Amino acid sequence: MTPTTPVSRPSDRWSLDSFFSAFGAADYGQFKDSLRDDLVAFLARLDGAEHVDAASLAAFESLSARLGHISAFLGALSADDANNDAVKADEAWLARTVLESAITMAIRATGRRKR
Fold first, then answer.
1. How far is residue 20's CA from residue 30's CA, in Å, rounded to a whole number?
2. 3-state SS string over 12-53?
3. How far apart, in whole angstroms, are the C-alpha atoms of residue 53 and residue 35?
4. Is the pLDDT of residue 12 over 70?
5. Distance between CA atoms of 24 and 112, rounded to whole angstroms?
6. pLDDT by residue (tens digit) across 62-97?
């Protein structure tokens, strides 16, 4: 008879360590601040541009990936505890940030369109 390895039972909680050390931790706050600052800088750069160049497209792709990263993190936290007001507040911040950015980009794009 061969010895068997005990089977560990899966946890009923997700490990979110690959996202941030914890909700509200320093790395999470720094990520949010950096994302906000980079988004403001991106929109300002677009404001003065005649067209979208490769650098702007790369910046947009990076911002999109980072928005997806924080969105997935907040979604997982919310799924675990739908009554967490701090998570709900950050979900609202994220939704507002994405919406305001989309509106700003649309206004700038239509403002340059020749009629």
1. 10
2. CCCCCCCCCCCCCCHHHHHHHHHHHHHHHHHHHHHHCCCCCC
3. 21
4. no
5. 40
6. 999 999 999 999 999 999 899 999 999 999 999 999
Q: In Å, what is the CA distance from 103 to each residue of 9, 41, 64, 91, 110? A: 47, 16, 15, 18, 11
Q: How many CB atoms lie within 10 A of CB 70?
A: 20
State the pTM of this model: 0.79
Q: Write out the DSSP string of 61-109.
A: HHHHHHHHHHHHHHHHHHHH-TT-HHHHHHHHHHHHHHHHHHHHHHHHH
Q: 62 with 69: CB under 8 angstroms?
A: no
Which sign, positive or negative, has the C-alpha torsion 107, 92, 72, 62? positive
| Mean predicted confidence (pLDDT) in 57-62 | 90
- The token pair at 30 is 């720094």
Of 1-10, 39-48, 83-92, 98-107, which gets the smallest average pLDDT? 1-10
Tell me which residue has tokens 């999470």.
Answer: 28
